[in-house]
Specification:
With 316 residues, the protein is α/β, with parallel strands linked by helices. Helix 3 links the parallel strand 2 and strand 3. 43% of the residues are buried. The chain has a 7-stranded mixed β-sheet with strand order 3-2-1-4-5-7-6, sandwiched between helices. The protein contains 15 helices and 7 strands. Helix content is 42%, strand content 15%. Helix 7 packs across helix 8 and helix 12 packs parallel to helix 13. The two termini are 33 Å apart.
Length: 316
């Protein structure tokens, strides 16, 4: 009883697909949430493991993803425009709060988003400096770069991009915008490349602008704040024995997820000499597998090379 797969982009490949399905330990009659629908690859795979009593709910902020998702014609499937940062609100709206058997987040930018030059996510394709996941959001990358101070840009580039030349790049942007505003991805990529010493560039495995584009995207879309909000809400949303699976693509996201799982697996931090029952200090989370893309998957889909999947299970 499976609806049609989404085929918005023929070359779109869902990262760590089999590992996600295995890690979620899907029950045929279970309730699941895909918090980052994208182009539906993970959702379609989850649906294929559900029987007629199973249910899948999905969220995405990108209107293009919502439009593509209309291709799935399945009564067991519900798709809503919204953010996983409000997972509690949506679970209550759907009447499944505390009943969810598994939640998935794929935190990467989707292939269609990267391949569409008009979205401004990629420095490999010249287009407007946009970078908004939700195009109804007001602030674009170009608008922020036009007004941000040197200190603000330096902080964003260093914190979210871990860019060693953050201050020099910030100063160059300010000097450039006095002459002409930064409006295109090529303008920004060329400027960043000019600020990174040539002697450093030949040793780089990634384009010199990679970290700057990542930092701006994370900042204007509030990506880390959204992930932190999700993690604060997820445990009450899950049923006992429910699983959480998160695929991250850079160390900032992965660090948040890893710390959340590690702290949950320790149990409540009561003083050792406090006379309480063992069950009260028992951990509420069981750590699961950590997976990375295989050599074969990376060869087939190079965008999977930095993906890390972490699984946890709620046990009380």
């Amino acid at each position: 009883m499976t609806g049609r797969a989404v085929t918005d982009k023929a070359d779109h490949t869902s990262v760590l697909l089999q590992e996600v399905i295995q890690g979620l330990d899907i029950k045929a009659d279970g309730i699941y949430i895909d918090g980052t629908f994208g182009r539906g690859g993970h959702s379609q795979a989850i649906l294929e493991h559900l029987n007629e009593d199973g249910r899948l709910y999905a969220l995405d902020k990108d209107e293009a993803a919502i439009t593509a998702g209309k291709a799935i014609t399945d009564k067991r499937f519900t798709l809503q425009k919204g953010s996983f940062s409000e997972i509690e609100k949506w679970a209550k709206h759907w009447g499944i709060f505390g009943k969810v058997d598994g939640v998935l987040l794929d935190l990467g930018v989707s292939s269609p988003q990267l391949d569409d030059a008009t979205r401004g996510f990629s420095f490999l394709r010249d287009g407007p400096l946009d970078m908004r996941m939700d195009v109804e959001q007001e602030l674009t990358a170009a608008q922020w770069l036009a007004v941000a101070t040197e200190e603000e840009m330096t902080r964003v580039f260093k914190e979210y991009g871990e860019e060693a030349y953050g201050r020099a790049i910030a100063r160059a942007i300010i000097a450039e915008r006095l002459e002409r505003p930064l409006q295109t991805t090529k303008q920004l990529a060329d400027l960043v490349s000019a600020m990174v010493p040539k002697g450093k560039q030949w040793r780089m495995t990634k384009h010199p602008a990679t970290r700057i584009f990542q930092a701006i995207r994370i900042y204007i879309n509030h990506e880390l704040e959204a992930l932190e909000a999700f993690l604060q809400q997820i445990l009450p949303v899950l049923a006992v024995n429910g699983c959480m699976a998160i695929i991250s693509f850079h160390s900032l996201e992965d660090r948040l997820v890893k710390r959340f799982i590690q702290e949950g697996a320790k149990g409540d931090p009561y003083p050792r000499d406090l006379p309480i029952r063992g069950a009260e200090v028992a951990p509420g989370i069981e750590k699961g597998i950590v997976s990375r893309a295989s050599v074969e998957e990376v060869n087939h889909n190079p965008r999977a090379r930095s993906a890390v999947l972490r699984i946890m299970r709620k046990i009380k």
